Amino acid sequence: MRRGEQRPHRRTRAAAMPPDGTRAGPDPAAPRCLVAEPMEEAPRRRLGRRLALMYRPRLGPQPLPLRRLAAAWQPTALVVRNRTRVDRELLDTLTRLRVVGRLGSGLDNLDTDALRERGIAVVSAPGAAAAAVAELVFAYLLSVARPLAQADADVRAGRWRREAMAGFELYGKRLGVVGMGEVGQRVALRARAFGMRVMACDPGRPPNGVVFAELGTERADLDHLLAACRFVTLHVPLTPRTRGLIGAAALARMRPDAHLIVTCRGGVVDEAALADALRRRRLAGALLDVRESEPPPRPDPLADVPGLVRTPHIGGLTPEARLRVGHAVADGVLAALGLGGEGPALRPA
Question: Which of 12, 89, 112, 287 stands the most exposed, by the fewest C-beta atoms within 10 Å?
Answer without folding.
Answer: 12
